Amino acid sequence: MLVLPALVLAYLGQGALILRDPSAAAEPFFRMVPPGAATWALVLLSSLATVIASQALISGAFSLTRQAMLQGFLPRMTICHTARDNEGQIYIPEVNALLAIGCLALVLTFRESVRLAAAYGIAVTGTMAVTSVLYYLVVRYSWGWSKWASLGLLAFFLALDIPFLAANLFKFFDGGYVPMLIGAALIAGMLIWSHGRTAVIDRGRAADPHPRGDLRLPQTECRPGGTPLPGPGRPSDGDRRADLAVTHAVGPHGSTGRGNVNFAAEPSHAKYFSTIVPTHPYGVGRGGDDRAGRGSRVSQRG
Fold this sequence. Notes:
This protein is mainly alpha-helical. It has helices at 3-20, 28-31, 37-70, 93-110, 113-142, 147-169, 177-206, 244-253; strands spanning 80-81, 90-91, 272-277, 296-301.
């Protein structure tokens, strides 16, 4: 109710200004106001709008990076939760540093905003087209729309997105190749990491001597001061073999750490998580399991 009418009026006003004074085409936005204090006020307003837009981009980069990590397409990074009551409000220092380096590199490479316009145009229109395709997948498979209704909605959006993208592709060699190279590099890196991670996991599971439900160490196998696991191991992913991190930790040391957090993913709409607060060294257990070992359980349901 506010942004769309404001944008329409701004664009129509710039178009009318150019029709009346063709020389204003060089900078129609700032020529809409008289020179002097009004121009400086418009510069300040534009700077504030840029900061707001950059915050949306940074937050989106954090969220997408986290989702890629959960899907196994990126290595683990530091995730800082910055809100007590909002699980999705996060900060990833590594991504923030990469964004800063990328922005500085683009500014030093292009030097002028006019030269950056081609890269910006392809990036925005390409994002719009990809978003339309992803939206089709959501309405088709998550919302359960019929095939033809979903395709009709996709065709409507692509009818608007594809002409804009095709028009910007003519500026490919004028700087438009930059966002496409960055996107290709990210996709290649994610696919390589996913393939390598899958190969390492399969190789480790093939050599894993502890199938699911059989992660139990006899007392004779524990080193001095260690305690055998009090019950069967509980993998975190529902696979048929115990979690590799657990088996690797138990294997060389013959015991577990002083505090353990064990998550079990179950097909439910409720979220469960259990925290083992150690009152005795080497306590290990599972939330809701009466056979848990030494340790005080604090279970919460959200």
